[in-house]
Amino acid sequence: MSTEDDKNIGRNLKKYRTSAGLSQVQLAMQLLTAGFEGVHPQTILKIERGQRPLRLTEARIVADVFDIPLNYLYETSKEAEDELDGLRRERLIRERTHALRQAVDALLTAQDDGQDWLDAHPRSKAVVAHGIRKALEQSDITEIVASHIEHHDRKREEARTAAQAPLPGWANDPDPEETDEQEQENPDGTDQKTP
């Protein structure tokens, strides 16, 4: 038996999941990793349909995964949507600022390393300086920064992937919602096509 609150929470969960571009399987994996014990894609489906209540401890994990305040799972107001949009933009700015700082730090480290080498090899200084000038003339500094950001993102993703626990058996299954829709279209399992 579901209440109107459960249905509202389910609609909000589905809205946040789809706006994040996650399937039910992907969300279940993220929630499992974040500590939502026993979660399964079917659990997500039932919550989204209002057929299973979302417990408070589970709601806290869901809010953390979506990086939203807990009350956003319960609200339906336009103000909450606007505030959520602002929070997402703020998070994106923080992430990009952090990546830019890392790129600048990498460039400064490379500059220091280059200067140390030049100090140790004074005869090569003029040749290297000319090569650096030519390289900078032929390239765009934004490309250099972008390549550093890509490198750091790739390393971070590799580290995250390497640290992940083994996937549960259902991790590569289709979303239960997709399977359920197919069963509703063809409940007896026979081919409904006409010649």
TrEMBL record:
**Residue ranges occupied by any HTH cro/C1-type domain in the UniProt entry:** 13-73
Q: Where is the composition biased (Acidic residues)?
A: 174-188
Q: Where is this region: Disordered?
A: 149-195
Q: Which domain of life is it from?
A: Bacteria
Biased region (Basic and acidic residues) positions are 149-160
SUPFAM superfamilies (UniProt xref): lambda repressor-like DNA-binding domains
Q: Which Pfam families match?
A: HTH_3
Q: What Gene3D superfamilies does UniProt report for this protein, alphabetically?
A: lambda repressor-like DNA-binding domains (1.10.260.40)
Matching entries from InterPro entries are given as: Cro/C1-type_HTH, Lambda_DNA-bd_dom_sf
| Designated name of the protein | Helix-turn-helix transcriptional regulator
**From what organism does this protein derive?**
Myceligenerans indicum
